[in-house]
Automatic annotation (TrEMBL):
This is GTPase Der. Belongs to the TRAFAC class TrmE-Era-EngA-EngB-Septin-like GTPase superfamily. EngA (Der) GTPase family. GTPase that plays an essential role in the late steps of ribosome biogenesis. GTP 1 binds at residues 9-16, 56-60, 119-122. Residues 440-453 have a biased composition (Basic and acidic residues). Coiled coil: none annotated. The gene is der.
Length: 462
């Protein structure tokens, strides 16, 4: 990436729409109501031959106190300081407002290069606002339509010399798996402390936090190095019970958060120590298991707990009782606000990620299978003996196994659980889902009937 471009402006002028167009996909939530974006969101932008980093910011507010709007403005000002170039967006149809003039002065004092663009300038309705923007005294104004893609070529022409100025002399970078950051999603109910945790990991106030529940609205991804491990962390919107999700924007936020789980490799389920294992927490854990993600349970606000020894004993018992499908999942107590327990959390994440990637040789699996069957033979329904003949691992991420069996449809679910628990204990597969499938046949190349266990032990045909 050659330079960083921050898109700034009043609420609802189209910053997120332009951001999505520059990155080429719908990363930021977009809605008609103002103030949807609250955090800083970074993306890899492409504009013709140009490659650069773009930052979507919260709408600039005139508040400067510790209110939510004041904290949003402080974050936007921080984005201005991080950027090489600021793209100041105004609404051509609404025309120039007093707030636009205030923020133009802020940008002028910043000393950064500023490009003014009048969005929603398509048609005659935006002509007057576009011309008024020249009165800001910040140079030429680009007429844009972020929604329809108009004016992108003009923007590219203005940014081209900027790209040359910040050009990287390195040859084209080649990213391999060893350089790829570990993908981590922070999941939890509103006000569990997800954004505070991400800020603690980053060591800076990057995401908006506060006592108000539901501050985060869309999934924000940030890349950093955490105790020597390169990670990409998705901070998601707090997910409430479905019956309580009413507003269109909140539905979009929840959908965005659930999509982040599918991108993740490890899910950190963040619980509030004052109300752990709420029904919604259990649903989120089940979601992570069904998606096949490695899981770590982190209990936040541990600094507020008085009887820590009794509480941790209770939490472990409840975890084993309520989430048997995630048997052995690590439980870590932390205080995101005070930055305590983060080293243990990172170690647990690295361990479950390694487990999630585990591969076991076929010879080891079959020696284990023979031992299991000899020690505890499968039942013989209706007097028919069930033979387990062969077993192999078909993939990792999560560990997935296939066993060939004479009568797969007759093998009880309890015996499958026995095999899965044996796999978990023998090969150290704690903290990760296990996929186990039975097929009918003498060897890996014959048979059609199968039974698949996907956490909930459902039967099916392939």
């Amino acid at each position: 990436m050659s330079f960083t471009l921050a898109i700034v402006g009043r609420p609802n002028v189209g910053k997120s729409t332009l951001f999505n167009r520059l990155v080429g996909r719908r990363l930021a939530l977009v809605d008609d109501q103002p103030g949807v974006t609250r955090d800083l969101r970074e993306g890899d932008a492409r504009l013709g031959h140009l490659r650069f980093t773009v930052i979507d910011t919260a709408g600039l507010e005139e508040a400067t106190d510790e209110s939510l709007q004041g904290r949003m403005r402080a974050l936007t000002e921080r984005a201005v300081s991080m950027a090489d170039v600021c793209l100041f967006l105004i609404d051509a149809r609404a025309g120039l407002t007093p707030s636009d003039k205030v923020f133009a002065e802020i940008l002028r004092r910043s000393g950064k290069m500023v490009i003014v663009a009048a969005n929603k300038a398509e048609g005659r309705a935006g002509e007057a606002g576009y011309l008024d923007a020249y009165s800001l005294g910040l140079g030429d104004v680009i007429p844009l339509s972020a929604e329809h893609g108009e004016g992108m070529d003009d923007l590219r022409m203005i940014l081209s010399p900027v790209a040359e100025q910040f050009a990287v002399t390195d040859v084209e970078e080649h990213e391999d798996d060893s350089d790829r950051p570990m993908q981590i999603a922070i999941l939890g109910r509103p006000n569990a402390g997800k954004s505070t945790l991400v800020n603690a990991i980053l060591g800076e106030e990057r995401l908006l936090t506060g006592p108000e529940a539901g501050i985060t609205r869309d999934s924000i991804a940030v890349t950093t190095e955490w105790y020597g491990t390169k990670v990409r962390i998705f901070d998601t919107a707090g997910i409430r019970k479905k019956a309580r999700i009413q507003e269109k924007l909140e539905k979009m936020s929840v959908s965005d958060g659930l999509r982040a789980v599918r991108f993740a490799e490890v899910v950190v389920l963040l619980l509030d120590v004052n109300s752990p294992f709420d029904q919604q927490d259990l649903r989120l854990a089940d979601l992570a298991e069904r998606e096949g993600r490695a899981v770590v349970v982190a209990v936040n606000k541990w600094d507020t707990e008085d009887d820590k020894s009794e509480k941790v004993k209770f939490l472990r018992e409840e975890l084993a009782r309520l989430l048997p499908q995630l048997r052995g999942v690590p439980l870590v107590t932390i205080s995101a606000l005070q930055g305590r327990g983060l080293d243990k959390l990172r170690d647990a994440i690295v361990k479950v990620h390694e487990t999630w990637n585990t591969r076991i040789s076929t010879s080891r699996l079959n020696r284990w299978l023979i031992g299991q069957v000899e020690a505890h033979p499968p039942p013989a329904p209706s007097g028919r003996r069930i033979k387990l003949r062969y077993m192999t691992q078909v993939k990792a991420r999560p560990p997935s196994f296939v066993a060939f069996c004479s009568l797969p449809e007759e093998l009880p679910e309890s015996y499958i659980r026995f095999l899965v628990n044996g796999l978990r204990k023998t090969f150290g597969l704690e903290g990760t889902p296990i996929r186990f499938t039975l097929r009918k046949g003498e060897n890996p190349y014959e048979g059609k009937t199968e039974k698949r266990m996907n956490g909930s032990l459902k039967r099916g045909k392939r």
